[in-house]
Design goal:
By secondary structure, the protein is of the alpha+beta class. It has helices at residues 2-12, 45-51, 59-72, 77-81, 102-110, 114-127, 197-204, 226-232, 257-265, 278-297, 303-312, 318-347, and strands spanning 14-20, 25-28, 35-36, 128-135, 138-145, 153-154, 160-165, 170-175, 188-189, 224-225, 235-236, 243-244, 268-269. The strands form five sheets. A four-stranded antiparallel β-sheet has the order 3-2-5-4. Strand 2 and strand 3 form a beta hairpin. The longest helix has 30 residues, at 318-347. The termini are far apart. The chain binds 2-acetamido-2-deoxy-beta-D-glucopyranose (NAG) (3 copies). Residues 151-153, 186 line the site of one 2-acetamido-2-deoxy-beta-D-glucopyranose (NAG).
């Protein structure tokens, strides 16, 4: 048993990057405020500002304060690392921020230069990592800026994950079990699981056409047979963790995150004892297709037109690009669900 365990650890735990705590900017997620490294000098006015934030929600505001403070300090590592951070025009995460979100309202109170503060908030939103860390005997939930690790892009099938190594006070980037990273291949982590595109957009400023967690709200009574749909597309697992049960290298493999999302979001019925009646099932699938078509038709543009806008405006502002992609991704998702229902109708043979 011991041998198996250590072999498993040996093959699983491949570390590819380690970043020491000293290079990060961290603040405890809850009171009392603990900083590491201790960049906030005793009695510095920024402490009062941080202390006046809402401890339950204002994580990004506190990190933004910390980042700007680090920039102001002579010789601070973040002055150099700042060169790698995206500029204000590249920050798209606040595109969907509603008037009610805390940041814009608090800016006046928190920042001498509101624009620069909003930039820092956006950096905090998109690049912070939340982890439980242990420093000495203290265990705390921390919001942290971790240089280099914050460059990893998102994937729903990431090849890496973060791990806090307590003994050396380091964040490690580890390779996910069962994954290999070839030379030149991008390293990715999963930023957020179980969230629709609007949440990804709000938090990180991007969306995905293959988000396995996107959803469509259907009205009406049409339902398709869940087990049959799943078996047609070889989807297995429980509703909360569906996955495509084929290790396929083919690029034209139809089942991607959008089809998994379809399985999750389509109105379904399930009863192993009652055989499905193909004609009724086809009718239901057609009706659901019709509803997707209707949602699609309500957009002012088609997917092709969105793509044309993206292609035509080469120097588009990043915010415009992100906004159009967000709309496009929604439509691609709906299109994929329509196609999946088409394939489904073809494959109900019995
Ligand atoms: C921080 O704010 C809390 C109230 O929110 C207050 O009780 C505490 O004394 C403040 N701490 C410092 C050091 O100012
Ligand atoms: C993340 O994605 C962006 C945009 O596609 C790309 O420019 C960048 O190189 C990627 N970062 C890494 C670390 O691969
Ligand atoms: C479903 O996946 C399993 C496991 O990869 C495979 O053996 C099987 O042939 C697949 N079924 C279909 C219908 O593709």
């Amino acid at each position: 048993m011991l041998i198996i365990l250590s072999l498993a650890l040996y093959t699983i735990m491949q570390m590819i990057m380690e970043i020491p705590l000293e290079l990060m900017l961290t603040i405890s997620k809850r009171l009392p405020w603990m900083f590491f490294p201790d960049v906030v000098p005793l009695g510095h006015p920024i402490f009062d500002i941080i202390n006046s934030t809402n401890s339950q929600i204002d994580w990004d505001l506190r990190l933004a304060c910390l980042l700007l403070l680090a920039f102001d300090q002579e010789g601070n590592f973040w002055q150099l690392y700042g060169d790698f951070l995206p500029s204000a025009d590249e920050c798209t995460s606040l595109l969907l921020a509603s008037e009610h979100s805390a940041a814009p309202l608090k800016v006046k109170r928190l920042a001498r230069d509101p624009e620069r503060f909003m930039w820092a908030v956006s950096i905090a939103q998109t690049r912070s990592i939340n982890l439980q860390i242990r420093v000495g005997s203290l265990v705390q939930d921390a919001n942290m800026f971790v240089p280099y690790a914050d460059m990893l892009n998102h994937s729903f099938q990431p090849n890496c994950f973060y791990h806090w190594r307590f003994k050396d006070r380091m964040l490690e980037v580890m390779i996910n079990p069962g994954k290999r990273i070839k030379r030149g291949e991008e390293m990715t982590v999963n930023y957020m699981s179980g969230q629709q595109n609007n949440m990804l957009m709000q938090r990180y400023g991007f969306s995905s056409a293959v988000n396995p967690w996107d959803a469509i709200s259907f009205s009406g009574d049409s339902k398709i047979h869940l087990d049959t749909f799943l078996s047609v597309f070889n989807i297995t697992g429980l509703r909360e963790e569906y996955y495509h049960n084929i290790q396929s290298e083919k690029e034209d493999d139809f089942v991607d995150g959008a089809v998994i999302a379809a399985a999750r979001t389509l109105p379904t019925w399930s009863d192993e004892d009652v055989p499905i009646i193909p004609s009724l099932e086809r009718k239901a699938a057609k009706e659901l297709q019709g509803r997707c078509q209707k949602i699609l038709s309500e957009y002012p543009t088609t997917s092709e037109q969105d793509q044309q806008i993206l292609d035509a405006t080469l120097d588009a502002r990043r915010t415009l690009e992100a906004a159009i992609k967000y709309r496009l991704h929604r439509k691609l998702f709906l299109g994929k669900v329509i196609d999946a229902l088409e394939i489904y109708q073809d494959k109900i043979l019995f």
